[in-house]
Please model this.
Amino acid sequence: MSYPEPSQPVYVTRASDIKQSGGQTEGMIRSNAIVDRCEGICATHMLAKPHTSSAVHHHGKQDTIVQAVKGRGSIVSEGGTKRVDLEPGDFALIPAFMEHQEVNDGDEDVVWTIVRSGRIPEVVNLTGWHGEPAKN
Model:
């Protein structure tokens, strides 16, 4: 069977090379892992320090998949009325334009791997639930 030629070789980002970068939300440290390498997908790393929460935000047209790697964190959505707790190994889907917050109420770091349906991650911080885009 014949297949098209791959558009590029396998690409690896070493853990030691991941540094804070990309769109930030107060309370979270986001780091680009694989970004701007191919159409339609990107991956980032998110660290939430103990007792922090992000600003209310969404990711525009991008669907987002979260995998909880370390610690116990939460995703708050639906105007602040719905809370989903994630433990290591859990996955969550955050649909495009879904306003949400990431929350770490615990005493240890929370680490998530995030995959989005865009070439470069989009973060739209808001002034609050159903708010306007915040000025950076």
DSSP finds no helices and eleven strands in the chain. The first strand starts at residue 28 and ends at 34.
